[in-house]
Amino acid sequence: MRYGVLGPLVVRDAAGEPVKVPEAKVRALLAALLVREGRVASTDRLIDDLWGDEPPGRPANALQAKVSQLRRAIGRDRVVRQGAGYRLELVAVDGGAETAEVDATRFLALVAEARAVTDPGERAARLEAALELWRGPAYADFADEEFARAAAQRLDEQRVAVLEEHAEARLESGDDPLLAGELASLVARHPLRERLRAVQMRALYRAGRQSEALASYAELSDRLAEELGLDPSPALAALHEAILRQDRSLEGTGRSPEGALTSDAGSTPRQDAHAPRSDRPPSHPAVPGNLPQDLTPLIGRDTALAHVAQLMGEARLVTLTGPGGVGKTRLAIAAARRWTDTASAHRPDGAWIVELAGRHGDATELAAEVAAVLGIRDDSPTGAPRLGAPPAPAERLVQALRERHVLLVLDNCEHVVDAAAELTALLLRSVPHLRVLATSQEPLAVDGEAVVLVEPLEPADARALFMARASAAAPGFGPLGGDDDLAAVAEVCARLDGMPLALELAAPRVRALGVRGLADRLGDRFGLLTSGRRDAPARQRTLRAVIDWSWELLGAPERIVLRRLAVHRDGCTLDAAEAVCAGGGVEASDVLDLLTRLVERSLVAVVAGPTGVRYRLLETVAAYAADRLEEMADAAGTRDRHLRYHLALAEDADGRLRGADQRRWLAVLDAESANLRAALDEALARPEAAVATRLTASLCWWWLLRGRLTEAVRRLEAARKADPEDGELALLHYAFARMTGTPAPSVEGAAEGVPDPVRRGRALWLCAYGEFSANDMAASAESNDAAVALFEAHGDPWGVAAGLALRAMHGLFTGDLAALDRDGALAAAAFRELGDRWGEVQTVAPLAAHAQIMGDYAAAERRQRQGLKLAEELGLHAEVAARLSGLGRLALLAGDWPRAAELHERARELTVSQGYRFGQAAAETGLALGARRSGALDEAEARLFSMLERFASPAGDHLRHAELGFVAELRGDRDLALTRHLRGLEQAFGLAEPRAFALSLEGLAGAESLAAGPEGQARAALLLGAADAARRSVGAPLPEAERRDVDRITARVLSTLGEKAFRAAFERGTDMTPQEAAQLGRTPTAG
What we know:
Among the domains are: 1-174, Winged helix-like DNA-binding domain superfamily/Winged helix DNA-binding domain (Arc Repressor Mutant, subunit A); 176-266, Tetratricopeptide repeat domain (Serine Threonine Protein Phosphatase 5, Tetratricopeptide repeat); 302-453, P-loop containing nucleotide triphosphate hydrolases (Rossmann fold); 459-552, no CATH class; 556-632, Winged helix-like DNA-binding domain superfamily/Winged helix DNA-binding domain (Arc Repressor Mutant, subunit A), CATH 1.10.10.10; 953-1082. The strands form four sheets. Strands 7-8-9-6-10 form a five-stranded parallel beta sheet, with helices on both faces. The protein has a three-stranded antiparallel beta sheet with strand order 3-5-4. By secondary structure, it is mainly alpha-helical. The N and C termini lie far apart (69 Å). It contains 47 helices and 13 strands. Helix 36 (857-874) packs antiparallel against helix 37. The protein is globular. Helices cover 63% and strands 5% of the residues.
């Protein structure tokens, strides 16, 4: 039987003949069962699907009649009774895409097969075959039925995504003369999809229609601004710039210079195209994940890959074990990519690889490392207050992943196997949709673990790998000498035990020795090279022998460079290699040539880095080179040069991170994260503390900008143990401790111990920033004033700007609107002149809030959009969420409920993915506000109660009680409205913020306006007058767009009292003191 849902519902038998399914309700029953994809649908659910709110008499019997009719049409055994419901029996006869009974399943299978094809022309053809299955919108004749809506939307979204992929494959294969024209109608139907827009722009450009490509970008930019208040993503903007400058890379590829867009992401934070693999991924990327691109095809692993893929479908933890060099990492990456490709619609959060080679520490440190890879920060926007005690790194990781469908690839777990096992067990227990794929030389021994022993390659596969690598190293190479050369290849592969790394290291020798010469040399050498190591497993002896041989064939300068490279972690730049590897017979000017020779011998890999080429050792080679380094007298000197180089780098970056080069230097330090960590470990291990103190202090600003607050606290604690008397370290430790809510040291007299006045001011300012985030406003203001005085006295413009920005934030939280506006504007101008984008972001919240309070919504939106763009560029995920919530609030004020809901929901998703509770509370509050204002009172009430349980905070709870009071008032429940607004009133007094107090008085006025007699109406007018006075006391009368509640209440009171009596009572209310108004609110009218 074949079922078609990609269009109107059709049924055909095995011969392809149509099967008639009589009557609309029977067809609806079949569609409802097909939506479940073979799962059971309860009887009650099916009755609701078929008849909705108007079920027939004896509905169970009516459903049974429809089931009988359906069975007669498609076969009795096809509709199976199971438990309290029914399911559709779906049978695959021969396996494979073509035998799937439902065309939607066949479509997804064909797409998965196409995605596995590397040739773009063939991939395009296969995608086209999948698209040909579509006959119209999914479940077209059930478009209005609730049971089909979600499935239809999901399938239609998948279709558009495949249309985008199909267009990209056609463009990549060169099939572009007609493509640009064909894309026009598709873009018209989906005008906000950036991936589609990108391929259209490239197709137009390659068709010689540059002006139309630029016009397409301009049209999208205008639409995003008008409809969502957003800008095009950085990737699309980069493509636009490439078209403007007629970048030659656009001529022959379907990809943009910055990497192809793969989804709509007009306002989605996204990764810098050159960001390093392991340190700064996007928070909420269009195509999530950081799997490295394969530079060569995976050979000989089809069976193993299929086995791993099968296990990943059955077990949530799969561990690949085996000796070093057997190919565990490469197989894991291929399996992870297949996992993300085969059903990407259900795995939206992608696969992330965390490299653990050379790492050390416990599960807490490992959790922080994983969080860094996933882009999960542990900071707040603009020093925003925390909600409760801060979570530990592992807890924050759990919070961030709880709603995500993520595959975590933990590579080289043997270095931290106990910590990896502990963290993996915790995550699997706590994160329902998480899967973990690990590589290790030993299993993790966690419950539910599926272990796969990765074996060496089979002889035929080993020969294929060797031939491919030898051909790459020696163009024109081939076993052309007949049977002897073929036998020599087989002999080489057999001697190397089919170990992939050994084969790759040996293959380049063909260029000098030929394949027979290589086989002979291996035969001669192995007897010597493997002797004396019989205690090691045979395959490890084989690999060691090959690396030994490669080592012995190197010249002395090459050996020096190789062993010194081992001190680096995650590779190094040429500058670093020259600084660390030179000396002892190697000139710095010779290092590049020596590196090139090592690359040609497959001992060093070249990878793309944030600022250019990086040189990296494979893990097995790195371990070997490290052993060789320890054998030599220059081991300590090499580590010292590595430390000094990275100390100079950090100290240089510390100043540059506060100016126009901020983004570039962030990328530099991000790429060197592992090296900086290793350098700091080395510094802390030394008896003298000076270098560790300097390096730790220099890294603090980078830690703050990257949201690595927990790491900062841990490192500062260690540095202070080595140097307890250093005043700057004490202040920095105190500042980060206040930000994270961890125990803070005493800093009495510490400032006097910092001789440099500018450094002293910056340390004090950081203390003020930390105190602000801890809600200690008085201490924050005092520390900030002391810092500003130092900055002004010693001419530090950055410091003055930072102090003014923090004063503006103080004004926002204390209601000092004049200071907020004055100091915020000065700070924004100063940061803009300095080119400090992070600093500019700090001024957005207070200035946007001031514009909103003043009713200048256009200015507020400009501020929010500017902040959103800057925050996305810098990867400040909490700030991105805050700006999205701010734009959502403005949409609420404009009465645009759908846009407000969309923006707040995007903010909520981002905060959940970051484990950022304060931002999540703000976004969910916005959703609740929108629900109440659009009339969805039940939804609003449910959201507000949920937040009261999960996000306790004085300011937030005040607003939620006020909103709950308005919900009750709108329902006409006076007593409940009074109870809720009185709770809000008590919290407003604790906040000492006049606008919060005014909101509670307005709510109480609404409750009083429901009273039956004139006394209650008069009290309502008094309360409205007192609220108006409270708002005007801080220069913030209620703007027109925010008067909806007050105008409703006023109209109700006027209808009873009349204009004259209302005005008299209102004016008396404006003369009341806050205490009198509060007392009036606490003693409501009886009845």
